[in-house]
Amino acid sequence: MCATLANAVRCSPQQDAFDLRDMHKQKSMPFATDAVEKEIHVVDQDGQTYRGAQAILKIASQYPRLRMLATIGQLPVIRPLLPVGYNIVARNRRFFFGVASRVFWLKTMIILLFCVGLILSSHLWIGPRTYPLAPILSFLPSSIYPADLFLYTALFVLAGAILVSARPQKFIFAFLGVVIVFCLLDQTRWQPWIYQYGFLLAALALFSWDSDDIDGQKQALNVARLIVATTYIFSGLQKLNLNFINYDFPWIVEPITNAFPAARDLLYALGIAAPFIQIGFGVGLLTRKYRRVSLILAVSMHAFILAMFGPFGQNWNNIIWPWTAAMAGLDLLLFTGKQEFAIRDIFWGNRHPYHICVLALFAILPFLSFFNLWDSYLSSALYSGNLTEATIYASDKGRDSLPASIGAYLVHTSSNTNVLNIQRWAIEDLNVLPYPETRVYKKIAKAVCELSQLPADLVLVVREQRMFWSKQETSFRCWDL
Question: pTM above the 0.85 mark?
């Protein structure tokens, strides 16, 4: 990094203003060797010494075009932060550019977007919330307040440490440990973006973070490629159903069809082709021949999704906006340039246990979801037309027996019939969609029944939508839960 700066100075019109010294060629120096190894030193004509960030500003002040930058750097608000920034850059300098840079930027992108997701879904983690928790085991507590506040704050502290640390393994493991605790206490937190980010971070935690560890870098990147490619493939497979073609996709493209009704037939045809296109570019990303066109299709799809779901489209479910942007960023990071990798490297690698685990979770077990034997959200099913949905029905007396905070979500649909749409409840209260599994809906309904003074007036109706072995509609009374 210092050599690059020195070369820039040497080749500039102001080169005569500097006397460059290379610590590796100097027989003696007026400074300790370890100090010069740590940060750049500049001595002016008056003998005053500048180190680190201040040395960079001193160099910049000698260039007319950069003097404004040097002036800004001396502002009271900026000056104290510069040494911190310099130290972060210095510690991570070997990862900013070159072969190792993709691992560094993968870490940076994932942890920043994870934090954006945490902020957008804050009620999912700490409340206050009316939507009940659904712990994975019945004996786990339904609330850990105020510990949840501490753990939620800890996630951002650990995220900061992950970003600045040159060897962030322990901080990543701690971050994932906190996320796992949260997810054990509530299955609604098993959102697809959390699942994907978590396994990407685990791959980075297992990397040595040695810039010379080429094999380790390839291993981490190939695990990430495996996760991204199989997410596309199974997301396409999940859409091979009439619900997606006839209902989900037409709803997604309503911002276009409302403005241009004549485009309806063309977009309907696109809805039929969409699953096959997504499967195609998911596979194509793994090949050398079709990688470029697949990359263009993948990034274009995410731009289209952002347009449809964003503020100028449906303005809906903003928690998936950063995830959609993240997927486009992952495509560019993992599948561009002159990176050499083959399908075998991605699906098998060096037979590391973690690589095999990811292969099972992202490329094998999702097939079971088509038979209702594996969770939809763990199988890349989102807005795919085949998610299990649930509704709680209540009589007028049953509605009145519920707390006002829950009763506010019930809609009176007909005589003595009130509907609590769990999907609407979750997204309005938590800013995420519910975890679409029957076992979770039963836990949610059970919590509602326990708050009612007339549980006999409540009924849960679940509609499973899978390719095979799903139940079209099942009713549960409170005593069945």
Answer: yes
